[in-house]
C-alpha cells in the first residue's frame, strides 16, 4: 500500500524540499536551458574540441537540449562503435560507422546536469561521406559477433572534460544512433568515483542477433559464450546507460561533488583510480565483474573508500576480459567448456557463488541476489538511519513498485559482513516463492561505509515520471522524491571520507529482523 510519510516534513513539505534538490524532477523543478543557449559549435574538423575547462565549473555551463534522439530509422540507416570503451582526457579513439545513406556527422555530448538539460555539446564533426559496412560476422565455438568494420575517423578528446559521453550519429535524412564513451579519470583521490558497467552493457547487447543471454533463434542454448566490443549496441545504442546510470550521474553532478569516472573494464585492467577515493558508486545494473575488478574494489573498501551499490544483482557473474579488454567471456552454466576451468579455476567464468572457487558477492556487498522477476513496494524498516534523514518516513512506510525487477536480500547462510543493519525489509513473491528484498548498510574495519539498495529500480527512480522515463514501472513522484532525498544523503555523506569515522555505526538488526 502506498503510504505517505506521517511525521517530519509531512507529505507536502517532504515533496517540496526533495523536489528542490531532486535531479529526477527535471521537468517540474528545474528551468531548462533554451535551445539557443547552447555554445557555438566548434570547428567541424574530425579532431576539433572545445577549450579545456576546470571540472568544478563544468556543471555550471549551459547545456544543449537537442542531445536526445528524435528519429532512429531502420537499424542499418546509421550505426557505429568506438574502438575503445574509455580513454583518458586528450587521448584519441577510432570511430567505426556504417550507414546506408550518403552523409553523416558526429556530435559528442557530455552527460551531466547542466541546469536540467542533462547534456552539453563539446564537439561536432563536419559532414562526412557514408559507407555501408555490412552486418558483421559470427565466428568460433563461442558464437561471437564482430562487426569488423573499417575505421571511419579518428577523434581526439583534447579539451574534453572527464565524464560519460554519448556520441550521436546523424544522417542527412535525420536518422540517429548513439555511441557511448567514458573519458575516465586518472585519479580518484579525494573524489567520488562513478563506475560505468561496460562489461554488463556488452553482456546484454544483442547486436547481430547474439548476447550472453540469447542466440539469433531466441534460445539460451544458442547464446554467445563471449561477446565483443567490436560492434554497435542494439536499439538506440545505449539503453543500459540511459536507464540505470545517467540518473545518478545527473544527481551527483547537480550536487557539485568532486567526481571521478571509470569503467568496470578499467578496474580490471589495474587502473589505480580508486587509490585514495572517498567513495565508489556502482550506478544501477553492474552484474558482470572480473575477479580483478572485485579484488580492486575490495582493496579500496579495506583502505577506507565508501561503497554504494545502487541496483541489485551486482557482482553476480564472474567474467574474463580478453583481447585487450575488447572481449567479455562468460560461459555461465556451460562452465565445463571454459578452457580455464581446470588449469585456472579462479578465472572460470560462471556465477561468483558457483563452483569452482565459489565466492558469493555478499561478502563484499552485504546482500545476496535472490531472484527475478518481482514488482513490490519498498518497505522502510529503520527510518531513523542517517540515509533517510529529512524524508519524514516512519517504519512500515511503503513505496509502490520500487522493488523490482531483480532484488537482493540478506542471507546469513552465505558470507555476510557484520555488524549489518537492514534499512528496508520488503516482502516479495518471486515465481510463487515468498521472500524479502533488503536494503542494507555495514561498515568495514578500515572505516568504509557500504550501502546496498537491494533493488534494481533504485537508480532509474531518480528520473521516474519525467520526460526521459515517463512510465518507469508505475513509480510515482512521491517515490522519486524519497529516493532522491536518500541518495542525496548517501552521496554527500560518503563524499566526506570513511563513514565510520563520522556517521552513526550500524545497529545490527539481522537476528531481530529474520528471527534467526
UniProtKB/TrEMBL annotation:
<dbReference type="InterPro" id="IPR006311">
    <property type="entry name" value="TAT_signal"/>
</dbReference>
<feature type="compositionally biased region" description="Low complexity">
    <location>
        <begin position="29"/>
        <end position="52"/>
    </location>
</feature>
<feature type="domain" description="N,N-dimethylformamidase beta subunit-like C-terminal">
    <location>
        <begin position="105"/>
        <end position="463"/>
    </location>
</feature>
<feature type="region of interest" description="Disordered">
    <location>
        <begin position="29"/>
        <end position="66"/>
    </location>
</feature>
<dbReference type="InterPro" id="IPR046540">
    <property type="entry name" value="DMFA2_C"/>
</dbReference>
<dbReference type="Pfam" id="PF20254">
    <property type="entry name" value="DMFA2_C"/>
</dbReference>
<protein>
    <recommendedName>
        <fullName>N,N-dimethylformamidase beta subunit-like C-terminal domain-containing protein</fullName>
    </recommendedName>
</protein>
